């Protein structure tokens, strides 16, 4: 037997592995999972029924063009069909974007810490990740990101609200940034948490894209819409970019169940907004509780809160787990805690209070 092994791309060396939020152990003390940015509510009215009906034909391939979903999105957001592309969650579309724009020697700029998939999808394509530290207020440093642009820069991610900090870039600074980015550099506004924003100074990326050919907006059904397990996201971009995304999509990647569930979710907007309002109210309660305990909490417009804990991060996460909730630690940096059921947040607040008293 040959001792040789297959040659793999050197670009894969050192690529970090995506770490999903750890679930609550079935036999452990933790009863609630707050480690992934999921919606704690069950599917919206009519969604489960649509998915079950679609499941009756999953011996057939799904509609690769996602025609029904594309038509619904075009009407919902008043955009041309040719400006839309779908994928396996917004992270799948993000990978398609990098594949469409950047290769070896090209640069992809993003804030750090931000969504941990950005360095992965960048390095998989052989491109060079350019990480720009957040400001002391945990916000994108747009001036520093502009300064990082070179003639090899192909794509810039702006995660708004930012994951995992929940902080936002507001209209004035974002528009000034977009006006200064070279027209041949694609700016991706990743708006996975758009529905949770209550700050009126945060612009809707779809309005910004309309007269800017180098702006693309990412959205997902995984968060507010509660379809995390079905993997469906979409991009809104001008024709050349959207066409490239459709070319780089995995064939039949979005299942028919996901397509039908997404359409039904879009048609249940009233129920959606009611649930999102409840999560936003719970977010405010948690932030108030933490600040009352003396914690410094980054201003969040997402469905999670961020505590920068440095070398206390792992100990804090362990304390939360002993109290019955699993949170998401980023060792050496901080903890992200998804807003879940009120009972879960009560346990979290109690754990946070006890941890602080012990400091």
TrEMBL record:
**Cofactor(s) for this UniProt protein:** pyridoxal 5'-phosphate
Gene3D superfamilies xref list: Aspartate Aminotransferase, domain 1, Type I PLP-dependent aspartate aminotransferase-like (Major domain)
Region Disordered: list its residue ranges: 1-31
Q: Which UniProt keywords apply?
A: Aminotransferase, Pyridoxal phosphate, Transferase
EC code(s) of this entry: 2.6.1.57
Q: Compositional bias (Low complexity) at which positions? A: 20-31
Q: Name one GO biological process term.
A: L-histidine biosynthetic process
What general EC class does the enzyme of this chain belong to? transferase
Gene Ontology MF terms in the entry:
aromatic-amino-acid transaminase activity; histidinol-phosphate transaminase activity; pyridoxal phosphate binding
> Where are the N6-(pyridoxal phosphate)lysine modifications?
223
Membrane-spanning ranges: none
Residues in Aminotransferase class I/classII large domain copies? 33-349
Q: Is tRNA-binding found in the keyword set?
A: no
Catalytic function, reaction form: an aromatic L-alpha-amino acid + 2-oxoglutarate = an aromatic oxo-acid + L-glutamate
Assembly information from the UniProt record: Homodimer.
Cite the NCBIfam families for this sequence.
hisC (TIGR01141), PRK03321.1 (NF002878)
**HAMAP family documented for this protein:** HisC_aminotrans_2 (MF_01023), Phe_aminotrans_2 (MF_01513)
Family the entry assigns: Belongs to the class-II pyridoxal-phosphate-dependent aminotransferase family.
PANTHER family for this protein: HISTIDINOL-PHOSPHATE AMINOTRANSFERASE, HISTIDINOL-PHOSPHATE AMINOTRANSFERASE 2
* Free-text function comment from the UniProt entry: Aminotransferase that catalyzes the conversion of aromatic amino acids and 2-oxoglutarate into corresponding aromatic oxo acids and L-glutamate.
State what protein this is by name: Aromatic amino acid aminotransferase
Q: Which organism is it from?
A: Streptomyces natalensis ATCC 27448
